[in-house]
Amino acid sequence: MLTVLLLLWPVAAALLLHFFKGRAARVPALGAALVEFALAAYAALTFNANNSGQFSFNLNWIPSAGIHFAVGMDGLSLLLVLLTAVLVPVILLSAFRRNFENESVFYALVLFMQTGLVGVFTAQDAFLFYFMWEVALIPIYFLAGVWGGVNRARITFKFFLYTIIGSLFMLAGFVYLYFQTGPTADGLSAHNSALASFYALNLTADTQMWVFWLIFAAFAVKMPIFPFHTWQPDTYTEAPAPATMLLSGIMLKMGIYGCMRWLLPVVPMGVDYWQNLVLILAIIGIIYGAIIAIRQQDVKRLIAYSSLSHVGLMIAGVFSLTQMGLQGASIQMLAHGVNVVGMFFIADAIERRTGTRNIADLGGLTRKAPVLTVCFLVLLLGTVALPLTNGFVGEFLLLGGVYQFNAWMGAIAGVTIILGAVYLLRMFQRVMLGPDSSFTETFTDLTGSELALLVPLIVLVFWIGMFPNTFLHLSEGSVMNILNEVVKR
Amino acid sequence: MNSIILLSVLGLGNLFLGFRRSNRLLLPVMMLILGGILTVNFLDWGSTQSFFNGMLTIDNFSVAFTGIVLLTALVLIPFSQKYVLDGESNLAEYYSLLLFSLVGAIMLVSYNHLLMLFLGIEILSVAMYVLAGSDKRNLRSNEAALKYFLMGAFFTGILLFGMALLYGATGTFVLSEISFAVQNPAPGFESLKPMLYIGMLLMLIGIGFKVSAAPFHFWTPDVYEGTPTFFAAFMSTIVKTAGFAAFLKLLVQAFPAANAQGIWLPTLTAMCVLTLLIGNVGAVAQTSIKRMLAYSSISHAGYLLIALVAYNGQLEGASANGILFYSLAYSVATVAAFGVVKLVADARQREDYNGLNGLAKTNPLLAFSLTVSMLSLAGIPLTGGFFGKFFVFSAAVENGYIGLVVFAVVMSMVSIYYYLRPIIAMYMRDTDAETAEAVPVTTFQAGALLLLAALTVLLGILPGLVAGAL
Q1: Domain presence at residue B296
Q2: Do A156 and B428 touch (CB under 8 A)?
Q3: Residue B192: C-alpha distances to residues B113, B181, B199 (Å)
């Protein structure tokens, strides 16, 4: 029941937000997001890490087709629900700094999207999963398209087309699997779409080989994995900062989560067959993203390519099919979410003050804004994976997982840490140190509310970095279950 | 049956309001009439009745489709308010023609005898021919009416010829008897087979024209463009819903036999592929929204044809449910789309995409409503259109037509391109001098649009309300 509450509350709040016009919507929106956070925190506190599948709820949704509104959380779901619940208030708060038209609609869309995200992370039924997957897509399309930059119409259109075509392939895959399942328990329908039934399917290796691509298409676009990534840098750059944070902080985790929950255990033989190819693509993405990031002049674009590179490592970890790799991916999803949202926030803070995102135009911010510099440095070092920060735990486990699968691949993927340090520290040096530029003369330090937003993120950077077990402990059982399903066949 | 009688009587009665020239009274009266008949219609739910020596059968199938047809008409009426305000002198006659055409639609969904099929099609079509030309002073409207009438008459001839050949081959007009004659060939039937098959194909062509399935679709864009938007909406929803119900009945009840299937199934599949291709690719190239909606209407005929191809031998099953749900979702979304396009076109005198620029700023309600309907037509979750496609596709997958479904999925990817264009225009482009002013919307119209959006979302969240009704 708690899961249902987590799902319904944001959408209900989004509808209620209609009664607040313009700026008046800010506080209620943030309040709603904090209530959601409290619910998620309550779920985390009462969660029993030794059991799988909790807070379950099952309702016959479309009886004639055997489709259920089935939701529930295991450790992995819980981690991502927590991530969503932490980041959404932060993202809403970051929007407070801007003045734009129809603010109430903006906040309502963010809350609406939260329902979709929580739904994706908790769905236990294939059609509910697909449904929620798209529910999360529609608001972000409008968030990026209506409040975005100059080229927003063209670029968000490309984004929408890419993702929806990926999703349609996934739907086709789910429909195929659906017809392989048996009748529902109550006998009302000849087939059912429950997660458990999908796990129990006995598909031949040949079938799994092509079903793999149907399902993987959606995840590959959303994460995105090389070469399906071409929408990503443009969209990240063109979307308004809060939408970019939603996209990079939470939405790309939908793809990784989807792989872990709906791909590996459902078509393990297909995964086995394509494992090497996906790993190679992931590693190409890691190197390619990093190299392009080095050449970027636009702060937002640089972070976008760095995100592409980091996602590559998470994909590689997942497809290493090792306990270490999957655990690394689950913790790195949290770490990356925290870091990338923080980085984009700071990029946005700089852009708001100076009117530019061009690295060459900036410089000397340290003297003007010491607090901002410290925050930026912490998040940056987290991204670079300095020990004791959140990035280290994740990347260590991920690289370990890939190394276990293939030492060469592990070694090449490890280059990401070096290249990451190269482009991020270069950016830091050019933006924060060096001589002042004409753009940064009147630069001011972070305000109280901006700091209030960054402090939780920084706490998380160190918390995950120093006590990773709080979180690793939660996902351990789920990851074991997933791997058991994979090995079983 | 109640609905046929009531519609005919009230249609006649309605003409008297026309004599009194009391246009302001017409709109509420029409809404009341249709609302009342919609309620009365469902009194027949659950019972099977037969009329005119079994020529018409009222069962759940016909009640359900009648419900869709009446509901569509009911929510369409508010968009004719401009005619009321402009003091259109023949309004009562138009409304009466609409009521009579509904009688034709209901006959189409409940016939048992080919004569009734023919009568239904003619009652529906003749009214539409007139209404297509109702904008008398507009040359394009005249052209549309003439084109529709000439083509329609031609294809009626083909349909009738097909029926005659069928009669020649089987000696009966009754669906079940045709089926019996085909399955239990009498002595000498072999030599009559070519006649039967040609008759079948000619009937396919005749009905294919009415539902604008390719390659008999060519009239659709021109006629829709010329026809006043209000009546074009009528054509693309009610005629299509009734047409497909009639189509399904014909295939299921007259030609379920294997040897008949061998002829019409490949034909229908080819028509389906062609319709999907022409509808979707054609829509991409359009600059006028009305023409885009016309091609979109062709493409939706293609999706509905999939359900026909995938039928599994019973009238009440996955296919019928698929068609029912799809027609409902499609009609609801299409009425909203045509409604908004009409309101915008009336106010801004433009029917191209740029006419919608910045509508989200001037008229949030219109923009929201059109967005919901576009997303539904594109088949995106949270809307009825998604489950419509889902039910149709899964009926086809269940019966092994995977290739066809894959093709349809690819085509619906194409469709996203043109369904997003109005959304982009409304939300992501700024207003210009011509589109800066808000479009006037009356309370009736706002209410209808809200109702349609709510219905679309409701169907998208709780499809179980309608799915599996048959």
Answers
A1: yes
A2: yes
A3: 21, 11, 11
